[in-house]
Amino acid sequence: MSEGSPADVAVREGLFTVAADGSCHLLGGRCARCGEHHFPRTATCPYCSADEVTEVPLSETGTLFAWTAVTAPPPGYRGAVPFGFGVVELPERIRVITRISEPEPSRLRRGQTMRLEIVPLHEDEDGRPVVTYSFGPVET
Amino acid sequence: MTATQVEIAGIGIHPFGRFEGRTVTELGVAAVRASLAEAGLGRGGFQAAFCGTAYGGVAAGHKVLDALGMTGTPIFDVEAGCASGAAALILAADAIRAGQHDAALVYGIEKMPKGIIRSSFFEPWREEAGLAATPSYFALRAQRLMHESGVTLDHLARVVVKNRRNGVGNPAAMLRREVTAADVLASRVVCEPLRLWMLCSPNEGAAAVVLRRSVASSEPTVKVAAAVLRSHLPGNVLSEATPMSGRVDDSIPAPTTLAATSAYETAGLGPSDSCSRTRSSGSVPGVTQARPSRTGRRR
Hints:
heterodimer, A: mainly beta, 5-stranded mixed barrel, B: alpha+beta, Peroxisomal Thiolase, Chain A, domain 1, two-stranded antiparallel sheet, 20% strand
């Protein structure tokens, strides 16, 4: 899939970073009090209510926990269908709701390794690609 | 001294379906009027009103009683997503138990837009990224349920068969035709493993009940044995909530489990005792995983 480029527009600022070499990370929050991670980062820890959250890049790879495919465009969505949708478990002990780059559910299996990538959704008014995060199966 | 019991004095319902040209206020008026008629009450017969709705708009409950010339009492407009109607009933029942009122009017009114539910719950970027398709969250829960419990696709289809059969004899139901499991499985795949007929159909309708403090009577009445509400705990990525992330921890109970446990404790009943129950008309996995969150017992 596409790698991030400076011309791309993130669907929302603060969700992910893309380095010059194309590597990317989701930006999570880690609570200094309870030590738990969450995504996206919030000012207050969703688990213990402490205001001691720092931003941390999350692991690029994880394992597939649950998945499906969305076959009809949901409200407010201007991209293509079908697209994959699921939950990926990261080593930081969190499960992230995410797009899945494989839209055919039968080609996926529980527990397989998934890697973060940045994918195009549609173009904005100036013709620039609007991009978001997705996890795709790692070729083995 | 025994605790105050709450009973249902009257019910009213506007059929559920699609009613072009009829406002949500008009649906509510029909249901409220019928419930008051069955209770034998009129203007001044109740001391408070509680209206549950998610899409009804500002002061939707006020507009219903305004149309009936019955304003003046406190009117509470209640929104709690799919639990809005239950939340209204809980507030009314608790107020009667607390001795605030002898009778209270409860009504739920709705006119859902067609198609996949659009909800202001989701921020615009989540819609734009395709992460606001509510059926997809139910699909993930269904897949997990099937993986962990031995529930099969055929089981999910048979829940639909049972629900549709319940509608056959109910003149207020939207879907009144009996279907087979094969029919259900042949309907369009919306989000694997969920088929179109496994999802709730957004629709329109209204229902109302008059609640009152129970008094000694030889007449059999329907009593509210328990009515409880719980919200989600943080960290469960596949509970009824639709968060962006959660913890790798399978011990965090879903709100349905919390509510059902509390309701059974309050009522002193268990699943095997229930002879009549209400539940939301949510999607199949929600219903399958749910134990009834509100039970009513006929005495």
